[in-house]
Design goal:
The longest helix has 17 residues, at 131-147. This protein is globular. It has helices at 15-28, 39-49, 65-71, 89-101, 115-122, 126-129, 131-147, 190-199, and strands at residues 55-58, 77-82, 104-109, 152-154, 171-174, 179-182. The relative contact order is 0.18. The protein has one domain: 3-Layer(aba) Sandwich (Rossmann fold), CATH 3.40.50.620. It is an alpha/beta fold. The structure holds iron/sulfur cluster.
Length: 247
Amino acid sequence: MTVSLAPRIAAKRSADELRALAEEANLALGSLTDHEASPAEVVRWVAENFAPEATAVACSMADAALPHLVAEQLPGVDVLFLDTGYHFAETYATRDEVQRALDVRIVDITPEQTVAEQDAEFGAKLFERDPGLCCARRKVAPLQEALTGYELWFTGVRRDEAPTRTNTPLVTWDERNGLIKVNPVASWSFDDLMEYAADHKAPVNLLVGFGYPSIGCEPCTKPVAPGEDPRSGRWAGLSKTECGLHE
Ligand code: SF4
């Protein structure tokens, strides 16, 4: 069962306190150095400094390696799923399987408008004519609102995914959303991710095995050939490469 609830934190530390904590963490964890902390060590730092209910994991439901990794030390953690209304059936099935298999609480984050309401206001297939606006309305704004109640969010951003992600630190202050952003698997490759998921029996979206290493909304995700850039199937044929969540 999934829920659409406000986060559970009672009192959030100030932006200055959290910003200072993020800076300390990057130094302590050796972010972007030769002695960088492992993903499990990064999660341990979070578990030692934050209440579980102050943290959330963003998950696209391509795989559940990150939710598994975090739930090992923060059981019951909120896993935020951006339910844009445009996902593959396999993605919804993965979400349900994650809820069954892991000690997490899935929180469905829904846009202000249904797809039908958006179509009525902006015309059908906004994703074809203005994907930036579509992502802003269906992903960026709803996530921003959902994150207000947390002190920290985990993402699955990896440095090898795109040139824009090469210098991703382990921990950073997320100015736009006003909380700490933690990228525990920044140093991992796609194969590392799949190996972790297999070793720990974490659910993986069936589409991954059919040429979809990166999975977003159905209209904007195409399979990629072996050896191709994993994210080249996202908004294929357009200059857009990011949905705006990690800019
Ligand atoms: Fe819209 Fe495509 Fe962005 Fe999904 S990925 S919100 S369908 S533009």
